[in-house]
Design a protein that fits this description.
Layout lengths: L1 H8 L2 E5 L6 E3 H10 L6 H7 L4 H17 L4
Antiparallel strand pairs: 1-2
Helix pairs in contact: 3-4
The chain binds zinc ion.
The site of zinc ion has 8 residues, from helix 3.
Length: 73
């Protein structure tokens, strides 16, 4: 998961964070898709969930794991 995150963080999308206007990378996009959020960068998402980026990534790992077990995308 950590390696995939680093790879995706180096791939840019055409989206921008609706809070800080930073351009989103593929990882941010994946976070938003997973949580069904508007385009938001990882930093603003973490703040929204009241977590540090580290805590947020742990939360997301668990969330994605649960979804995969349910056969979701
Ligand atoms: Zn942002």
């Amino acid at each position: 998961m950590a390696n995939m995150r680093e790879t995706k963080m180096q791939q840019w999308t055409e989206w921008h964070c609706h809070i800080c206007k930073k351009r989103l990378n593929k990882w941010d996009e994946r976070c938003c898709n997973a949580l069904k959020e508007r385009p938001t960068c990882e930093k603003c998402l973490a703040a929204k969930y009241n977590k540090t980026i580290e805590e947020f990534n742990q939360y997301l790992d668990e969330w994605l794991h649960i979804r995969e077990c349910q056969g979701g995308k």
